[in-house]
Amino acid sequence: MKIVDIRATTVAVPLEAPLRHSNGAHWGRFVRTIVEVEADNGLIGLGEMGGGGESAEAAFGALLPYLKDHDPFQLEALRFKIANPTASLYNNRTQLLAAIEFACLDLIGQHLGVPVHDLLGGRVRDRVPFASYLFFRYAAEGHPEIRTPDQLVEHTAALKAAHGFTVHKLKGGVFPPDHELECYRALAEAFPGDRLRYDPNAVLSVAEGLRFGKAIEHLDNDYLEDPVWGLEGLRIVREQVRVPLATNTVVVNFEQLASNVLRRGADVILLDTTFWGGIRPCVKAAGVCETFQLGVAVHSSGELGIQLATMLHLGAVLPNLTYSADAHYHQLRDDVIEGGKMAYSEGAISVPSGPGLGVRLDKERVARYAELYREQGGYPYDRDPGRPGWYATVPNERFADPERDIAP
Predict the structure, then answer these.
(1) Does residue 407 carry a pLDDT above 60?
(2) How far is CA 90 from CA 93, 96, 99, in A?
(3) Which of 162, 294, 340, 406 is the most buried (most CB within 10 A)?
């Protein structure tokens, strides 16, 4: 089997509402580049990549000379062809490699008639549990704003009723820490017995990170995720706060993982199939974590159904996945795969069992959302449409005002 072509299509799939985060916002849609890698036997493997609200079509098109006539089974050779570590100092292609790896694994699975999780060692679970992913957000048609503790609790209750979530993750760093602490405590009070997570995307100062961490020690926390920036900052907080610390920002490769093993700053590593360069590196990293008794979880970087499938196959094969996975998925209004959005049941999604990734493109949906991208274009992920001229610093002191902030 040889690769003969690669096609990339950028789509914009609507979210329920614009989602705010510590560095900016998702502006009411996810912009994702869908990749189709065609083999000489007629099979097509699927990949997907984000890009901070921008298209990556041109970057994938430029990879065709690297990929033409490449055997999809040769995954280690693929890694060095696309993301040689020395060459990547000048042209970092880790996320491009991830999308191509997804497609190659999809091709291999289809060719052999087996699901990707069988290629990765076989599944140890049939369903992957997920946390609700809670955002402060602007209002949009049919979906109210989320800014206050009461609004957040009402939204969480609706998600719990619809999808069965029993773990709740609050994406913070938008409003002052005291306001977000009030929101977090409101969740704990409203959903006794459920587990909680807080993630301000590393914008708190060390002093604020310590203060917030100590204030939630008595709650049912899974972990405190990236309260401050960097392994050294995490290490300072970890030494003084009795809540496990997690990261998806400063342990995203094996050098950083080794540093964290030698001088631990994070207790839980959130593995992202895009950030790490594919599903297989995440499986390798999970093995290291198992050896050194680090927890692992599956991270979400804003997925449609193709990347969600990679997260499900990863979650299926990790014996040491003791935490619910993250997903933005329930924030979407639609998807580009056949059958539309995958369904949650009791807070979990079933692992695809079909050959390869187990998902196929819905051509009509792809065309519709490619046209929406052409109409609306991209957006800057690191800007907030409701705060013109604002940008985040690390640590941040210019938080949004929960009393005066208005929608764009």
Answers:
(1) no
(2) 9, 14, 20
(3) 294
